[in-house]
Each structure stands twice: as C-alpha cells, then as structure tokens.
Amino acid sequence: MSIITNPVVVSVVVLSALCLLKFNILLALIIAAIVGGLLGGMPLAVVKGPFAWIPGMATEGEGVVDVLIGGMGGNSSTALAYILLGVFAVGLARSGLGTILSKKLSRSLGKSKALMVYTIAVVGCLSQNLIPIHIAYMPILIPPLLGLMNEMKLDRRAMALALTFSVKAPYIVIPAGFGLIFQGIVADNVNANGLNVTVGDVTSVNWIGGLAMLIGLVVMATYFMSKPREYEDKPVLGGEEIDDQEVTMNRQSWAALVGAIITAITSIATESLPLSALFGLLAMLILGGIKFSELDDVVNGGLGMMGFIAFVMLVAAGYGAVLKATGAVESLVQASASAMQGNKGVAALVMLLIGLLITMGIGSSFSTIPIIATIFVPLGLELGLSPKSIILLVSLAGALGDAGSPASDSTLGPTSALNADGQHDHIWDTCVPTFVAYNIPLIIGGVIGTMILG
Question: What is the pTM (predicted TM-score) of this model?
C-alpha cells in the first residue's frame, strides 16, 4: 500500500478538505471515518437477511458505524470533564470573578496589542498547570475583552494563537496538572514498548517543543498584529460592561475563588478532571457562589458552552478507533520506512509527519501517544536513535496536528471565546493560523532536536 493511497492519509485529507469548505465538523468526522474504514477494507455496517447483497455491507463482524460508535467511549472521561468544566465556568462567570479579572486586565494592558496577546498567553498557561480547567477559562475571560480588542483593531487571529499556545505549550513542557498527565502517558507508553524512562526524562527534552511553539507564536502573532483589522461592535455573550465601583470582590466572587483553588488541589491530588470540576462546583454551591435555585440554569449554560465540544471529542475518539481498526496506521509507517534510508534527520521528519496526519484526524495529543509509541519506539531503536530522541519524537508527534485540527479542543476552545459576537471563523481564523504557527516550528524543532540528541 503506497503512502498516497493509505486510508489514514486519504481520510485526513477528506476531513481537512471538508472543514476548509466550512462543512459541519461532526458530519465531516463521520464521513472521513466512513472513507477511511471502507478504504481499509471494513464494511460500512453489518446487515442480516435479504439486505446482505447491498455493496459495502457484511453479514458478520463489525462495520465502520459499529466501530465508530464503540470507539466514542475512548473520550468519555474527557467529554464528561469538559461538560462539568463548562458548568464550573458558567458558575465562575455568574459569580463575576471572570468579569472582574477581565476588567482589571483591560485597565492594566492599556492599548498595547502585543501586551494583551502575550499576557493572555501567560495567564492562560495557568489553566493547564496551576488551576487545571483547560479551555473552560476562555469563554469566561475573553468575551468581556472583545470590545477592547475591537477598539485596538486587534486581529483576533493573533489572540487565537495566544489561546492555543496557552493550552498546548504548558502540558508539553511543565510536568504539573495536564502536563503531568501528558508526560506520564508518554513515559508509560514508551516504557511499554521497550525502553525504561521516567517523567523527568520526558521533561528534560520537551522544552525543545515549547521553544519551537514560542518562536511560532512570536513570529505569527507579530505578523497579524502588524495590520489592523476592523470588527463591528456587536452584542457579546458574557461581555457586559461593569461600572468601576463594581470591580470589587464580593461573597460570590470569593466563593468562586475558593472553588477554583479546590479544583486545582483536587486535580493535583487525583489527576481526575471530572472529579476536580465537580468538587469545585460543589464548593461554590455550598459557599454561596451559585444559588441553589439557579443550579439548573448553570448546568444548562455549561452544556451550551461545552456540549458541542464534548460531543466532537466523542466522535473524534470513534474516528480514531476506525483508523486503528483498519490497520492503516501500521501500514503507513511501513510504507514510510523505506524513505528513511537509515538517516536520522529523514527518519525524524517522516515520523513527525506521520504523527501530524494521525493527530489531525484524532484531534487529541493524549489519545495519539499510545498509537504512535507502539510503532515509533521499536522503529527508533532499529534506526539507532537515542532514548531521548525517541521520547522527543513521540511527544512532538503526538502534539503535532492538535493545533490546527478542526476537531481539537485546542482550536474549538479559542473559537468558542472569540466568536462570542459571531465574527470569528473556526477554520480560517483559528485552525489555519494555528496550524502554520505551531506545526511547522514543531517539525523543524523535532528534526533539529533529534540530530542533536542522537
């Protein structure tokens, strides 16, 4: 099977093309899964009786639809976490804590585009490592700032880059919160395939990926900020103005702050995002940050905020299960192996491109690691790569494609916040800029890092 006709490659191309044409993401994932499954030799569905003659069907085994639905459970914990984090985020928004923080930030930032973009990038990093609410901070903090961005004529593509950076770079580099989970997954899967490494070993090389992303952020954000972009002043959900005298902490705000601290502590102690969000939510409820009579509205608001993202993640997991069931990932690596020719630099480039294709389809760095580690570790050892080079390639191959994938929370989150007034396109204003800004530097950094580490 050639690389061009490999089901994974064709399926990801179909998915990307449909999304670039602004086709619905959920339907694009399902269609791409069907294309990949059929090309991989899987039947569309299992039928019985007089319908067995229909082309593309089978009378036994599992069809594409069966595997797609069955595989959705692979992201069930993540989906539940996002929904609960959405509810937690709405609770924070109702407490006024997010608006107060946004107002104080707007006063401190003045009219500097660069200061705003880079401050949000730094503050957002706390959502991964200190208070691990992931993308849930975006629809709390960003909508109240859209008016100021419009006044600055700030191109929101620059802010999209900052937001995606804030949820990707920290977990690649820092072993705390989401970073500890990600780096633990890398270490566990590398060890399961023949090496003996620690999370410390992962941390010691992953700074290369963080540096590559930082360079991409600075270069692309500077380019977008250099040209003013006009936006209309439209109503913004969650962006209500507040008077100066209201920028003070009250009982609800303090309750929300305690809830955020409890969420952080629970996340570090249990490494469970659903449990962390639940405990933080209950703390706000008990302390009066959320009125019991408003609880249903808060839950419904959380579902509205994160429900679509959670369902996209579920379908993305099913899509990944279909690609794995075809066996096309292994054949893709085998077809690419001949191009490596024993050259470490070429091998690194090919392996990273494979990771890009896989993660673009699955949309999750965390879910990609177990797939690529199974193949990359033995392949890296055969090519004579050092353990640190293998760790770097597995980490970056997993991270590649997460930025730029239409089904990734790293792109869905920024769009949900920046499109609060309906003026930010998911594909062209978030996915395409983040793809260029981060995937290209990560590939270059991965190749250079592999050559240095040996």
Answer: 0.75
